[in-house]
Amino acid sequence: MTRIKACCMASIAEMQMAVAADVDAVGLVGQMPSGPGPIADGLIAEIALAVPPPIAAFLLTSETTADAIADHVQRTGAPVVQIVSHISPVESARLARLLPQVRRVQVIHVEGDDALARIDAYSPHVHAFLLDSGRPGAAIPTLGGTGETHDWAISARFVVASPRPVFLAGGLNAGNVTAAIAQVRPFGVDVCSGIRSNGALDSAKLNAFVAAVRQAGL
User: Fold this and answer.
1) Domains along the chain?
2) CA distances from 47 to 8, 28, 53 (A)
3) Are the CB atoms for 105 and 128 separated by under 8 Å?
4) I want to staple 167 with a disulfide (CB 3.0 to 4.6 A). Which of 67, 128, 154, 188 is the partner?
């Protein structure tokens, strides 16, 4: 069964709505250079503490050093950290030593075939990958929440080559997620803009997305 991560939770009420819709994980966005959904670390800590098991709470951090990432995790208490920048593999290895008890998910922004070259660099140090559509090299970096898809053919090759589970993100919604799952065969899918209206979590869109993912797994 394809896992579902509902990202950009803005409150305990939104998290509870996502949990009631039968998602497997929720995403809590820390400070970012751009994009939707960032909330204060104090609120992240409150929501993370309220997430009922076995639902996983992911902290999205834009920090780029092991020490800063570890500090962000410790401030918020999240059991999973999603590293949205292409950090140095040296820092990734150090983070694994600093936070052996925390699940670590490395985001790969799929801009071309070079995404595949990052598998060997990170896979010894992380538990999973998440493929997204950001532009980390832009003048103002975009590190997620773009609402745009990327080349799923590259993502499918990444899934085949990766020794770690892979989540797929980037422009997913109830209308395209079935096709995305059929082509990419990810471990899980991640959604933010596709389940929101006017910035707020939309119950109808959320439930339609979950239903489409569950149907794709039948």
Assistant:
1) 3-208 (3.20.20.70)
2) 12, 8, 13
3) yes
4) 188
Between the CA of residue 217 and those of 3, 40, 212, what are the distances in Å?
A: 10, 35, 9
| Dihedral pair phi/psi, residue 107, rounded to 5° | -80, 135
DSSP label of 38: B
Per-residue pLDDT for 169 more than 90?
yes
Whether the Cβ atoms of residue 78 and residue 44 lie closer than 8 Å to each other: yes
Q: Residue 60's pLDDT is what?
A: 97
CB 84 within 8 A of CB 59: no
Mean pLDDT across the stretch 95-100? 98
* Mean pLDDT of all residues in 95-113: 96
- The pTM of this model reads 0.94
| Residue type for position 167 | F
Alpha helix positions (H), the chain: 12-20, 41-50, 66-76, 89-98, 118-122, 152-161, 177-184, 203-216
**pLDDT tens figures, 20-66:** 999 999 999 999 887 778 999 999 999 999 999 999 999 999 999 99
Structure tokens at 102: 């925390």
